[in-house]
Design goal:
By secondary structure, the chain is α+β, with helices and mostly antiparallel strands. It contains 15 helices and eleven strands. A four-stranded antiparallel sheet has the order 6-7-5-8, with helices on both faces. A hairpin with a 5-residue loop joins strand 10 and strand 11. Helix 7 packs across helix 10, helix 11 packs antiparallel against helix 12 and helix 14 runs antiparallel to helix 15.
Length: 381
């Protein structure tokens, strides 16, 4: 099977592959303009007409990979571990997450490879993927479930997603994703693609902290996202919404469902692709809007509204109050602390703009100040 992902225009009608290829209905769709809406097709093989319509030459792509590999040959001669700096950051729920950051030379090289995939391969991602993708994010992911008016949710987590992703598995999955599928049909193409991707591997897996690791996971997950999304649309005589944010799967329905059946379906799908990772079942969570329905840092509450939650708003209100009073009393905050506060304000406004704007305006009225102007003035050099 080959999976072809194209730009899907924002309309209710979902184009068939025939409509896309032959222009039977609707506008012609560009391959790489707005990454917000995409549609993935599963085909047995890519025909000559498809190749002409999609307009990407595998020979050009092989040449780009060959040039990249030639220019990065010196990096390959050095021990890979010497090209990384290791550090740890705290996890949200305790513990530490290891981050491997490439040095400047390797960072630049991986950025070049990323641009080749973007500009020459014109990579797009499955419509259910939301992490590390331009014009998609956590809020967009939750909105998919909100628009379905889902009331029951199951959250699943992959175990060691990046670290267990091997080069062999990446090549296996890329070989099913257009246009990589066309490149690997040529021996030179398969060799050059593997050589290029190998530069992104550390200690047998994908390191967290490089500019290309997230892109690689989103490309390799296209067939899996396709199978899960399509399979869950009508699973056990019930409609589900599926979204993925990196290694987090969120699946919802309007009605109560047997989440262990869904869990088994996911694991069976992963096993069908011989994935080197599986679900961390100890982290599986199931619940409804009636409870604390937190996902990706926000809550979809019982009224089907996306919110940052009362506790975060209370803390933000206290932060604003302290900032105003300290500034008025001649005790200005450090610029870094103000930037953190402004970051909260911008993010919270993205989640529930009217509520946050009213909160800020009410505090400003209480202390007779323009809070936003005060923040901007405090951030000036």
């Amino acid at each position: 099977m080959t999976y072809i992902t194209v730009k899907q225009s924002p309309m209710y009608h979902q184009m068939s592959l025939e409509e896309f290829l032959f222009g039977i209905e609707g506008p012609k769709l560009p391959l790489n303009q707005n990454l917000t809406n995409t549609r993935t097709y599963e085909v047995l093989f890519v025909t000559d007409h498809m190749r002409r319509k999609l307009g990407i030459s595998p020979y050009h792509l092989i040449d780009k990979l060959t040039e990249f590999n030639k220019n990065t040959e010196e990096l390959r001669q050095r021990p890979r571990r010497e090209l990384y700096r290791e550090f740890h950051i705290p996890k949200k729920h305790g513990g530490l997450r290891k981050i491997d950051a490439p040095n400047d030379e390797l960072m630049d090289a991986l950025r070049v490879l990323k641009r080749i995939f973007e500009d020459d391969f014109k990579v797009l991602y499955h419509t259910s993927a939301f992490a590390y993708i331009k014009k998609r994010g956590t809020i967009d992911s939750i909105k998919r479930h909100q628009s379905n008016e889902s009331r029951w949710f199951a959250k699943f987590d992959l175990h060691n997603f990046f670290g267990s992703t091997t080069l062999d598995f990446i090549m296996q999955m890329f070989s099913m994703v257009y246009p990589f599928s066309e490149v690997v049909k040529h021996q030179a193409g398969a060799e050059e693609l593997r050589k290029a991707l190998e530069l992104a591997i550390l200690d047998g897996g994908l390191p967290q902290g490089t500019p290309i690791s997230p892109m690689i996971t989103n490309i390799m997950m296209i067939p899996i996202d396709f199978k899960l999304s399509n399979g869950l649309r009508d699973f056990n005589d019930q409609h589900f919404v599926y979204t993925r944010y990196a290694d987090d799967f969120l699946i919802s329905s309007r009605f109560h469902f047997k989440f262990r059946d869904v869990e088994k379906f996911i694991n069976d799908t992963l096993a069908g692709f011989n994935a080197p990772f599986s679900l961390n079942t100890s982290k599986t969570r199931y619940g409804s809007l009636s409870g604390s329905n937190w996902n990706l840092g926000v809550m979809l509450n019982k009224d089907n509204q996306i919110t940052v939650g009362h506790e975060k708003k209370r803390h933000f209100k206290a932060m604003l109050t302290s900032f105003i009073l300290d500034t008025q009393n001649g005790n200005p905050w450090d610029i870094n602390d103000i930037q953190v506060m402004e970051g909260y304000r911008n993010y919270y406004r993205m989640v529930e703009g009217e509520t946050i704007d009213k909160l800020v305006n009410d505090i400003g009225a209480k202390y007779h100040v323009d809070v936003v102007r005060m923040i901007k003035d405090s951030l000036k050099p």
